[in-house]
């Protein structure tokens, strides 16, 4: 499985190549500061202080030294969000996108960030606090699924962003395992009237995470879903074609793929089962930017 992670990382790095760092970094960039206990404090290109896991070789080096990560996703999400918007994020990780979205929605908005990895949650909790976003970000330590219950969660010490809910035999190179709580978003956010944006990157658990939010999705007529789509990982939770059809049944019939340069390309429902890895945008109506 580690080879698959390296392939995914290479794809992410393509999005960083050619990025005009001068447009993303503060004029005077302070160095990353090691705090001990495998923690570091850095500043993102957007000016947010962020706590990082120094064992990680996937995200941490790029955020720590360049201040950016998945710029194509960050820019897309910022285009979709407005002040006072409500966001549900599944797979918050260390919180790079969480902080950016919290800034975008403003003090009257709300971000519900779900993350199953306890170590990532500890880092993100501190990042939320140090940036003064406790008023708008609610952090949920759990795996968003389609049914409640205890789950096995596997992580790789050098790839903090690749932890996943185990189905069957875990990958041999994922040597760290922890039992986590699984819950439905509908059960955790029963009083949330609607949401403007779902952002998901949870290593194949996107289908059960969304199924567990079906009630909220039905209430949110203008919701947009921005999700990582990896058919191989997603197939651990059932046929990808069924998930695709389920989204269409809820009215999410418009699909765009955002490439590493941020360009949007139309995709047709019924053709996504063989997508190896992509970032997709689903909506009930055509999006106009």
From TrEMBL:
Residues 89-252 form the Methyltransferase FkbM domain. Pfam families: Methyltransf_21. It comes from the Bacteria. This is Methyltransferase FkbM domain-containing protein. It comes from Falsiroseomonas bella.
């Amino acid at each position: 499985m580690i080879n698959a992670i390296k392939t995914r990382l290479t794809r992410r790095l393509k999005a960083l190549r050619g990025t005009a760092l001068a447009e993303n970094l503060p004029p005077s960039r302070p160095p990353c500061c090691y705090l001990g206990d495998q923690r570091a404090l850095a500043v993102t290109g957007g000016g947010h202080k962020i706590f990082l896991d120094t064992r990680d070789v996937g995200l941490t080096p790029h955020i720590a030294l360049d201040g950016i990560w998945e710029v194509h996703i960050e820019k897309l999400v910022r285009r979709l969000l407005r002040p006072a918007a409500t966001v549900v994020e599944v797979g918050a990780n260390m919180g790079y996108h969480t902080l950016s979205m919290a800034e975008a929605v403003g003090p009257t908005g709300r971000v519900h960030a779900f993350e199953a990895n306890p170590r990532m949650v500890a880092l993100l909790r501190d990042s939320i606090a140090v940036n003064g976003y406790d008023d708008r970000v609610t952090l949920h330590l759990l795996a968003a699924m389609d049914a409640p219950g205890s789950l096995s969660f596997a992580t790789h010490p050098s790839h903090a962003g690749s932890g996943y809910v185990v189905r069957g035999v875990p990958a041999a190179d994922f040597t760290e395992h922890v039992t986590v709580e699984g819950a439905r978003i509908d059960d955790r956010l029963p009083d949330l009237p609607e949401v403007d944006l779902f952002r998901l990157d949870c290593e194949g658990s996107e289908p059960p995470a969304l199924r567990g939010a079906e009630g909220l999705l039905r209430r949110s007529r203008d919701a947009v879903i921005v999700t990582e789509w990896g058919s191989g990982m997603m197939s651990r939770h059932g046929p990808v074609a069924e998930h695709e059809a389920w989204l269409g049944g809820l009215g999410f019939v418009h699909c765009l793929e955002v490439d590493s340069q941020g360009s949007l390309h139309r995709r047709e429902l019924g053709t996504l089962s063989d997508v190896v890895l992509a970032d997709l945008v689903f909506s009930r109506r055509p999006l106009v930017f």
